[in-house]
Amino acid sequence: MSLLAHANQRPEGAGEEPPDTGAARPSAEDRHRLTAPQGLAALSLDAMASVAYGPESIVLVLAAAGAYGLGFTLPVTFAIAALLAVLVASYRQVIAAFPDGGGSYAVAKRHLGRRTALVTAASLVLDYVLNVAVSVTAGVAALTSAFPSLYADRLWICLGVLALVTGVNLRGIVESAKWFMVPTAVFVGSVLTMIVAGLLRDAPASTEAAAGHASALAGNATAVGALLLLKAFAAGCSALTGVEAVANAVPAFRAPAQRRAQRTEVALGALLGVMLIGLAVLIGRFHLQPVEGVTVLAQLADASLGHNGAFYVVQFATVVLLALAANTSFGGLPVLMALLARDNYLPHVFGLKADRQVHRHGVLALAAVSALLLVFSGGDVNTLVPLFAIGVFVGFTICQVGMVRHWRLERSAGWRGKALLNGSGALLTGVSAVVVTATKFEEGAWLIALALPLMVLVFEAVHRSYGRIGERLGLGRVPEAPRRCHSVVVVPVSSLSRLTSKALTAAVSLGDEVIAVTAVQPDAEGARAAETLRRDWELWNPGVDLVELPAPTRALGRPIVAYVHELTDRHPDNRVTVLIPEVEPAHVWQRLLQNQRGAVVAHAVRRDTDAVICRLRFRIGAEPARKTDTRR
Fold this sequence. Notes:
Layout: H1 36-43, H2 45-49, H3 54-62, H4 66-70, H5 73-97, H6 104-111, H7 114-146, H8 154-170, H9 173-199, H10 226-236, H11 245-248, H12 257-285, H13 296-305, H14 309-324, H15 327-342, H16 360-377, H17 381-384, H18 390-410, H19 415-439, H20 441-473, E1 487-492, H21 498-510, E2 513-520, H22 524-540, E3 545-550, H23 557-570, E4 575-584, H24 597-608, E5 612-619
Helix pairs in contact: 1-9, 1-12, 3-10, 5-10, 5-12, 5-19, 6-7, 6-18, 7-8, 7-14, 7-15, 7-16, 7-18, 7-20, 8-9, 8-16, 9-12, 9-13, 9-14, 10-19, 13-14, 15-16, 18-19, 19-20, 23-24
């Protein structure tokens, strides 16, 4: 643990960033951070890709009320777009108030207490992990729909796509943004082109995509109940997943990070809102009906662009973006995990950064858990979808409530209007969370309801462990002054060699007293080896005592551990160091030739004593070979 881990953290919301002049060259560190366009590509893929299944979710629910029910597609979409505007405005304020990132977690931590913040963090972690699995499986499902021969290998394709996205993100979030900017631009451009082309048509250009497929429309109906509208609204809100990712990853942006993140959030909301409303208008304009085996987006592309090359461009762009939408999680979750690690709720290793500003351990942990989900589901998207989007609504609701409290405490100009906006958003997202959980509970949502409190318990267990460690280390208190104590260095040996000589030389340099020890095996061969070593030691006479330790069970570590305990009990103030000499071979494969005796001894001493362990490496091949003297 670092005693200064919290001292160097900037208080949330403190300080102003320098103006964005646009002329200064980015520093070496800033080159590994995001610009606004790169942030849009790296952090918006989840939200952008949701237009492929958000409108379809609305249509499928309303189809239960027949053609009359489909007439409510546009009003429901407008309601979702209004909620999107509320969320974008809210998260824009979150970015300004919490520039260190964390989004909903940071808001809840400051204004709603520790336990609520942990619930928010758990919901975000679950949503990010599920987003990876759902995005990859959905993208591969679209691919196997076009190429049915690949269906049997869909799990391996899913794992391959996951490995690709993970590898790109290990090279840095800027690198992932560069890779994914083109697919994002192609997808957004093709959808917007499709919307414009559809608005210019009076009738569908083609219906070939839906031809021959059974309609999913229910029989004639003349009424739509409030519950059905709520279900449609909640289902369509799956298109809002990913809106919070920008606020979670503010530190990943290039300075001035707040402004760039806010621009990215607004651009994301504007593009997503335009696409959702545009697609809803086209659904009503072409009187589209859901059919089995063909997506709503595919039918709209067919009706707007015709069954030609442009149709397949839309389909291919959708496949690619769905598969790569997992990148949003790789941009947001590692930053959130770093914040949790900073607050002692996750292992501190998740707070470490590698080169290129990569939270490598967070990326690898996300990839590993997502891979397990993919294996568990067999690459089947229908197994994972019922679990998706519940966590994000919990996070949305808590964030909105926290921002209401933020405005009430701050009471800045116009705070009542802002609080009303956030309060309305909290009500809408809260209703959506309840409806989604209730309607999908038996389909697997109960797993999320169980996982959330379990994750909170894990966070608190980690926090308690760090608390106990901090108490034992005396963190936050002035420690006692250092003092010198008698140092005893114990050197395990088994034979005489240059390695033994170097080990004793190092030990004499380190300690006040050096003792060489050897374990004697309880058989004739062991007795002969001990006798040979004793005779050679007396002839060599290095000035260091050799102590023979009986090893009745043939264990290497136990005799040395018992001897260390004996030294400690005899002189409690002594500092005992066990120096273990080891050979470092010239080639990696040669490590297979070693007996691993040093590792066994080190493990035993570390586990059972408080002795300092020093492993001395003798590098083979580090010195030039000696020339043979052929002179007589």
